[in-house]
Amino acid sequence: MSDSPVASDGALLGGYARGVAWTYLSVLLTGASTFFLAGWTVRRVGTAEFGQFAVVASVSGLLAMVDYALGLAVQRASARVEAGSPGAEAERDSVHAAHGAFVVVGAAVALVSLASGAALAAAGPARMPRLPATVVLFGLATALQLATAALPAVAAGSRRFSLRAPATLAGVAVRVVVAVAAVGRFGVPALALAHLLGVAADRLVLLGLLRGRVPWFDARPARPRSRALAQVLGFALPLLVLNVSAQLFAVVDLVVIGALVGAAASGLYQVASLLPLQLAALLMIGYNVAFPALSGTDDAAGQEAATRFLTGVAAYAAGTGLVLAALLRADVIEVVLGRPSAVAEDVVAIFCAVCLANVMLHGLVALLIARGHQSAVARLVAIELPVNVILTVWLVVALGAPGAALATLATVVLMDFAVFPALCGPRLAFPVLGTIVRHGLAPAALGGAAAAVAATLAGALAGAGAPRLATGALLAAGIAVAAGLAVLGPAGRATLRGAFAADRRAPAPAL
Fold first, then answer.
1. How far apart are CA 381 and CA 387, in angstroms?
2. Concatenated DSSP letters for 87-104?
């Protein structure tokens, strides 16, 4: 038994379910406000002007890759500081080095935004007079978000997920109030200003909450020590490679389809893949709540037991949701497109399989990153990307847009079930392929069976389209919960109760 404080009191998954609930609440608040404000703005300024905002937001969104990579490094270091692990003082220095790096990046983005706005204003875009102001304001919002990105990462790494909800609520409230009051008069620059003020409100509330609960974190940026900065960048760079690889996967598909089939097919492909990708992303967000707990302990057996359990739960949930979407894909397309499309249905079904495979492997990847082996995972990109590009071109030529989805599926299956176990398996003390089959495929199959029953009942009880989807989702949730609790057995149900219990860790030791 490890002497890690997290492991020794049996609290590795203590508070996990509550952390998931707080995280999903923040996601729901952000998503609902974004959806509402998009509709509100389009109705007042039209699609053309709103398109300017969407383009600026998309370009700024590319910087989220830096946020993800450095943010995950901060989460891991914060978790180890909180756990009082060996080298906690060095981990604290890493957190502050990353915080300093975030501030520098934020300042650079602010300068680029101001310069870009000035250049656009000097060019005098007669057809887009509001674009310079939109670029400057949204750029400053992105700069502020990056400069303060260590705050939510420290909150997550310290497993204080409840702090994010009030901060998110404050940001959403400010964003909505400002946008509703000003968009009608000032157009999309007002929406960008609302985003800037919303970020400021979010971060100010979070900063105030962290001060009283994470006393070891100093929010005042300082010049980072070179050794600490090198350590945190060394951890973050492989994660940046992984994130860029994930983005390139989507870009390659859309570019190849657009070039070989046409822009309409590319748009259809993107819309059809949206539901499976969003379902998988939602499950992975919930799974990632366990990352600080995995990072904060050196108890290998505890990490592996938690990973097996959570992988089984995630695979079971993914099997239920994604198989249901695949079985009711005609209804999914009817709701999304408003018309039938055999091509779109094929893409939905294939992407459900792609996302299911990714969910099954996600826990093992998270475990490797928590142990500091992210470089081993990043090396897989050298195989993954070339294989995907070759298969995508070949299969799109042969099969059209569904060929790109098949190429992604073939690449994912090859990487998850052959290359990953062969190259990363030696870094784990248990059989990787056996773990994927037992704790990934088997629970996913059980979830798929629950989905099949729900889809059959929904087909008999409800009409096509949204009614059948809603009925199927409700039935699948009920059947899956009942069957899942039965299959878990006494030991699994005890672990689940522990995950729903409060987090009873000892306070972080003073440094």
1. 10
2. THHHHHHHHHHHHHHHHH
Taking the CA of residue 353 as centre, how many other CA atoms within 13 Å lie in the half-sphere pointing to its CB?
A: 15
Specify the long-range contacts of residues 272-275, CB closer than 8 Å, at least 24 apart: 272/333, 272/336, 272/341, 272/343, 272/344, 272/345, 272/347, 272/348, 272/351, 273/347, 273/348, 273/351, 273/405, 274/336, 275/325, 275/332, 275/336, 275/348
Residue 472 has pLDDT above 90, yes or no: yes
Alpha helices in 62-87 (DSSP H): 64-82
Q: What is the pTM of this model?
A: 0.88
How many other CB atoms sit within 10 Å of the CB of residue 61?
12
Residues 6+ apart with CB under 8 A from 357: 409, 412, 413, 416, 417
Q: With 90 as the cut, is the pLDDT of residue 449 above it?
A: yes
The tens digit of pLDDT for each residue in 481-505 reads 999 998 888 888 888 888 887 776 6
Taking a C-beta distance cutoff of 8 angstroms, is the pair 370, 291 a contact? yes
In three-state secondary structure terms, 428 is: coil
Distance between CA atoms of residues 91 and 231, nearest Å: 9
**Chain centroid to CA 163:** 19
**Averaged pLDDT for residues 122-139:** 80
Element (H, E) at 338: none
Res 11: pLDDT: 57
List, for residues 383-406, the tens digit of each pLDDT value.
998 999 999 999 999 998 899 999
Place of tokens 């099954």: 360
- pLDDT above 90 for 353: yes
Contact (Cβ atoms closer than 8 angstroms) between residue 141 and residue 195: yes
Q: Can you spell out the DSSP letters for 171-214?
A: HHHHHHHHHHHHHHHH-HHHHHHHHHHHHHHHHHHHHHHHHHH-
Task: Tell me which of 263 and 195 has the higher pLDDT.
Answer: 195
Nearest to 406 by CA among 388, 420, 429: 388
Q: How far apart are CA 407 and CA 389, in angstroms?
A: 8
Chain-wide mean pLDDT for the chain? 88
Report the distance separating Cα 368 and Cα 373, nearest Å.
Answer: 5
pLDDT at 2 over 60: no
What tokens appear for 209 in the block?
Answer: 């909450």
Select the more confidently predicted residue: 43 or 318.
318
Residue where the block lists tokens 């935004």: 113
